[in-house]
Each structure stands twice: as C-alpha cells, then as structure tokens.
Amino acid sequence: MSDRLIKKYPNRRLYDTEQSKYITLSQLRQLIVGGELIKVIDSTTEEDITRTILLQIILESESGGNPLFTANMLSQIIRFYGGTLQGIFGNYLEQSLGMFTTQQEQIRKNMGEDPFTAMTNLAQNNMKLWTDMQKDFFSAAGFSSPKKEEK
25 and 54, same structural domain? Predict the structure, then answer.
C-alpha cells in the first residue's frame, strides 16, 4: 500500500491528491487515525515535510484537552537530542509503540476468549517481544548480550 500524497501549498493549505480537494489539519489527523499512511510534500520545493506536519498535528492535539506527554517526559526526550543515544532512543520508542499497538490488536482479537488464557498469552508474547527489543537495544549500543552460564 502506497502513501497517500498530500501537497502543502504556500497559502498553508493542504491538498489531498487522492480526493482532489483541500483538507484541514483536523481532517488529515482523521485520515491518520483511520490507518492511512501519508506523505506530505511542499508543492513548491517537492521537499518531504511529513514529519513537520505530523509534529504540527501532535502540537495541536497536545494544546487542547488531555495531553499525552507530560512536561517531564518532553524534557527527557529533549535531552536525547544530539546525544550519542539519539538514534537508539528513536528506534526504541518506535519499537515500543509498535509493540503496544500489536498488544492492543491482540487484546481486541482475544476478547471472546477465556480472560485468563488471553492474559497468559499476552504476557508470554510480551516477554518475548521485550527480550528481543532489549537484545537489539544493547546490541545497537555496543554491548554484547549476556551469555548463559554453562552447567
């Protein structure tokens, strides 16, 4: 599935090339929430500005209602910029969010199952995912994974 192309014009308007109409930032947010993969380009320079627009959507969402990020969490994220672990931290966050999304899908899928079995399966999957992610994290940071003791 290819990304849905959105063009941003100098008048700050967003144009959905699939629907051939202008959309608001709020409508773009709804597309994303609905599972659409998007790519936003500047109509003049053809530069990919997807990240900038996504950050703008997050900023707008954080300004109203119930924010997702606390001031402490944002301060901690800022501290990673420019540091040696910036890339590793970004990868870690991406994998964590991916794992969280997978868990949510599993919970929805297993709602009809016996709750004990569903939770046991989820816990087992979580342990494997976290173990794999930790291994990748430490490997990327230059640490070797601990060897099992031989008996």
Answer: yes
Which residue among 41, 63, 85 closes a domain? 63
CA distances from 95 to 6, 36, 64, 113, 131 (A): 26, 19, 27, 27, 12
**Shared domain check, 80 and 57:** no
Helix axis angle for 86-109 and 115-140, nearest 10°, is: 170
Extract the tokens encoding 102. Answer: 């997978």
* CB-CB contact of 46 with 5 (8 Å): no
Q: What domain range includes position 18?
A: 4-63
pTM: predicted TM-score of the whole model, two decimal places: 0.69
Q: Which two tokens stand for residue 137?
A: 């994290």
Per-residue pLDDT of the chain (151 residues; tens, 9 = 90+): 689 999 999 988 999 999 999 999 999 999 999 999 999 999 999 999 999 999 999 999 898 878 899 999 999 999 989 888 888 888 888 988 888 888 788 777 776 667 677 777 777 877 887 787 778 777 776 776 555 544 4
Please give the tally of structural domains in the chain: 2
Of 63, 91, 110, the residue that ends a domain is 63
Q: Which pair of tokens denotes residue 116? A: 């004990």
